[in-house]
Amino acid sequence: MFANLKYVSLGILVFQTTSLVLTMRYSRTLKEEGPRYLSSTAVVVAELLKIMACILLVYKDSKCSLRALNRVLHDEILNKPMETLKLAIPSGIYTLQNNLLYVALSNLDAATYQVTYQLKILTTALFSVSMLSKKLGVYQWLSLVILMTGVAFVQWPSDSQLDSKELSAGSQFVGLMAVLTACFSSGFAGVYFEKILKETKQSVWIRNIQLASRNRFS
After folding, report:
1. What is the pLDDT of residues 106-163, one digit of tens each?
2. pLDDT tens for residues 7-51?
3. Which helix (H) or strand (E) holds 43?
4. Are 178 and 102 contacting, i.e. CB atoms less than 8 angstroms apart?
5. Is 41 left (phi over 0), alpha (psi -120 to 50) or beta?
6. Cα(104)–Cα(102) distance, rounded to whole angstroms?
């Protein structure tokens, strides 16, 4: 039962990540009359949806009691402003990262973006070693080297790309710099958030509400 749930969850995660990239890419490159939507607006709407989802999960953990939900939100968020303030750093970084992803997808094709963005695995591993004192085995380091090699091959220009290099070099460089910056910001913010979770007893749902709330005002 749990094994099946694990594979189902993995499949849903893969579908969600892939569909998100394709949808973002389509929405940023669609040619139509009128102004394009602001990436900052999309980021704020996404954070609002995260807050709503986390509140529903806290409501479920509170045995579906509105009174208990109100008490938890009041005690853990309103009465602990310093705990919420701790998330100002990762929330600001996540806001920057989410806006950079829209810039990257506006200048790179979906496949190149998706593969290059996997460098966040490398940055997360490096920040985990430096900030959390984690130790990586030989096979883990070897996997990271293979990942870097794969990303390098994806960025290697093909013959068809060389023909249009002068026309698209500028936009590709902007997209590449945006996704690389997003990789570093994602790695640092993720490890910083993990460190905060390990140092406190608050649930991950409460922390996500605090994080998304800070993102809205970043």
Report:
1. 888 888 888 888 888 889 999 999 988 888 888 888 888 888 887 777 666 555 554 4
2. 888 889 888 888 888 888 888 877 777 777 888 888 888 888 888
3. helix 39-61
4. no
5. alpha
6. 5
pLDDT of residue 156: 63
Say how many C-beta atoms besides its own lie within 10 A of residue 59's C-beta: 18
Let me know how long the chain is. Answer: 218
HEC string of 66-120 equals: HHHHHHHHHHHHHCCHHHHHCCHHHHHHHHHHHHHHHHHHHHCCHHHHHHHCCHH
Residue with tokens 């096979």: 139
C-beta separation of 43 from 95 below 8 A: yes
* 207 in Cβ contact with 196 (< 8 Å): yes
Tens of pLDDT, residues 52-81: 999 998 998 888 888 888 998 888 888 888
**CA–CA gap between residue 149 and residue 127 (Å, rounded):** 20
Q: Which of 89, 125, 114 is nearest to 21 (CA)?
A: 114
| Residue type (1 letter), 1 | M
